[in-house]
Write a structure and sequence with these properties.
Blueprint (H helix, E strand, L loop, with lengths): L9 E4 L6 E9 L3 H6 L13 E8 L5 E10 L10 E8 L1 H14 L2 E2 L4 H8 L5 H12 L3 H12 L1 H25 L10 H20 L1 H9 L1 E7 L5 H9 L17 E7 L2 E7 L9 H16 L2 E7 L5 H11 L6 E7 L18 E4 L8 H12 L13 H22 L4 H19 L5 H9 L6
Parallel strand pairs: 1-6, 7-9, 7-10, 10-11, 11-12
Antiparallel strand pairs: 1-2, 2-5, 3-4, 4-5, 8-9
Helix pairs in contact: 4-5, 5-8, 6-7, 6-14, 7-13, 13-14
């Protein structure tokens, strides 16, 4: 793809492909007004800035192709920072293609994927993390992902990264001064103060990095594994949570042998529920493979709903079943006593242990299902995150992890009285990794990779 700042004027359809009520064709670049005027019945100039002009699209022979609106936005006060025209037309596929053809005939180049947003970044209208938030906003399918994308677009995360870099730059400056005057035995700052600053930086960088697990799950769907013995009601619960009969329900033990996954939104957060094979000793190789897959899924889930059949399980057997599985510490286990409608005992269902939440439900009567939904939402929804800034992007997480590693190396260097010039290397490494998040430092191949995942026209 040609350089985004090669002086060309670009064009692309910005609306979704296909027939629609309205189509938007976007033009951006130094000749946007002139090339657009060449196919429009009205002259568009800087005098038309921030105005909407009604007119006709004309072919090279003067034939009317369509009539519509031209929105004029002169740079730098436009999305791309360049002169921009957006044609709002009828959504005929022929009209869309013909308008793009005419604009290219006038001198435009067809835009590459994400090139409008790339120009916005290169012209300083957005930083790199905000540009990525634009893609997240377009892809958002539920309110949790939408809210995180909006927060990224508003720049709170960018400002925090900028503040971290400012602190590090000041730190690096003091180290460089020490290095410049090292022969005169001058120390410009108490190294104990450096450690206080480093501890603060490590805490802030660590908090951002640690938020990725929750943020990424909210963005792509919180994985919840449903485990338990055969006929404990796993498939029935899945159907109740989804409000649809997605899983086969049978009295025959071992009906579910493979993984069944489906999603639903609870209080604005997307959850990915995973129905699994019943856990038991078996000589059936296919069922054994299903059980192995079930345990693998559980180890990577954020929550495990461990189902206990209240008609046959007691507190002792329940504790034994859950303790034997040895879930990772970050996995929230919820013990769900099923078939509460069949329980004749007036006594409450027992808790399993202090670390395990306990609920009783009847998927048949829906008793306890709202409480289970509420517990999942409060445990894994956006409101459950402890940080005001939540990382959702894997590239940002990797950069934060590398920055934290470099900061730990700085701390180690100070503790061992490493020379300032060597400590400064790790400080600069950390600065580089933080700068790569917002694009303060970047490589062209990284930009190409990021913007290639955008749709054409954005």
């Amino acid at each position: 793809m040609p350089s985004a700042l090669d002086g060309s004027t670009i064009v692309a359809i910005s609306t979704a492909p296909g027939v629609g009520g309205i189509a938007v064709v976007r033009v951006s670049g130094p000749e946007a007004l002139g090339f657009s005027s060449a196919i429009f019945s009205k002259v568009l100039s800087s005098d038309s800035d921030r105005s909407v002009v009604f007119g006709r699209i004309l072919s090279e022979t003067g034939e009317m192709i369509d009539e519509g609106l031209a929105l004029v936005l002169c740079g730098p006060r436009s999305y791309t920072g360049e002169d921009t025209v957006e044609f709002n037309l009828h959504g005929s596929t022929y009209v869309q293609a013909e308008v793009v053809r005419l604009l290219m005939l006038a001198g435009c180049r067809h835009a590459g994927p994400g090139e409008f947003t790339q120009r916005a970044f290169l012209n300083g209208r957005l930083d790199l993390s905000q540009a990525e938030a634009v893609a997240d906003l377009i892809a958002s399918e539920h309110s949790g992902a939408h809210r995180l994308a909006i927060e990224g677009l508003r720049g709170g995360f960018s400002r925090e990264i900028g503040a971290l870099r400012e602190s590090l730059i000041g730190f690096a400056g003091l180290l460089e001064l020490e290095l410049d005057f090292s022969e005169e035995d001058v120390e410009f700052a108490d190294r104990a103060r450096f450690n206080v600053l480093l501890d603060d930086l490590l805490s802030r960088v660590g908090s951002l990095a640690d938020s990725f697990r929750a943020g990424n799950a909210i963005k792509s769907g919180v994985p919840v594994a449903i485990l338990g013995a055969p006929n404990a009601g796993k498939s029935t619960l899945l159907n109740a949570l989804l409000g649809d009969d997605k899983a086969i329900v049978s009295d025959i033990a071992g009906t579910t042998r493979d993984i069944i996954e489906d999603t639903c939104v609870i209080d604005g957060t997307l959850f990915r529920f995973i129905d699994t094979a019943g856990l038991r000793e078996t000589s059936d190789s296919i069922e054994s493979e299903g059980i192995r897959r079930a345990l693998d899924k559980a180890s990577t889930a954020h929550s495990v709903l461990y189902l206990l059949d209240s008609s046959i399980e007691d507190e002792s057997s329940a504790q034994k079943s859950i303790s034997e599985l040895d879930f990772p510490s970050e996995v929230k286990v919820i013990a769900v006593w099923t078939k509460s409608d069949l329980n004749s005992s007036a006594s409450p269902f027992p808790s399993i242990n202090a670390a395990t939440s306990t609920l009783e439900i009847s998927a048949t009567t829906s008793e306890g299902i709202p409480a289970l939904r509420s517990l999942l939402s409060s445990s894994h929804g956006l409101e459950a995150t402890t940080s005001s800034l939540v990382v959702t992007n894997a590239r940002h997480f990797e950069a934060l992890t590398l920055a934290r590693t470099s900061l730990l190396a700085v701390k180690s260097g100070l503790a061992t009285d490493l020379p300032s010039d060597l400590v400064a290397i790790d400080v600069r490494e950390s600065l580089h990794h933080l700068g790569s998040i917002t694009g303060a430092v970047h490589a062209d191949d990284i930009l190409g990779h990021i913007f290639s995942h955008f749709c054409i026209g954005k």
